[in-house]
Design a protein that fits this description.
Layout lengths: L2 H19 L5 H13 L6 E4 L4 E8 L2 E8 L4 E6 L1 H4 L2
Antiparallel strand pairs: 1-2, 2-3, 3-4
């Protein structure tokens, strides 16, 4: 994955996280969450596989449960889904 794609995913996730949950994170916090998912530490928060590449997690981020899409190919969070959309 290119550095620009990783940066783009970070900014998109950060923007959607704030827009939909009013939670703000920095790059270090984002990297820590991505690494925890990759290493299996967040397996308890797994909800379902959407496709071969994308997985939906319900993650606690700063005290808020966030519906987040993780890319197994790129090993990072792609977006934060609205609360109502992830329940379908």
């Amino acid at each position: 994955m290119t550095a620009s794609k990783a940066r783009s995913n970070y900014y998109h996730f950060k923007r959607r996280l704030f827009e939909r949950y009013r939670v703000n994170i920095n790059k270090g916090e984002y990297d820590t969450i991505c690494e925890a998912i990759k290493s299996g530490e967040y397996s308890l928060y797994f909800k379902r596989s959407e496709t071969k590449r994308k997985t939906l997690y319900q993650l606690p981020i700063k005290g808020v449960i966030v519906n987040a899409v993780y890319s197994r190919k790129q090993h990072n969070l792609v977006t934060a889904l609205p609360k109502w959309l992830a329940s379908k």
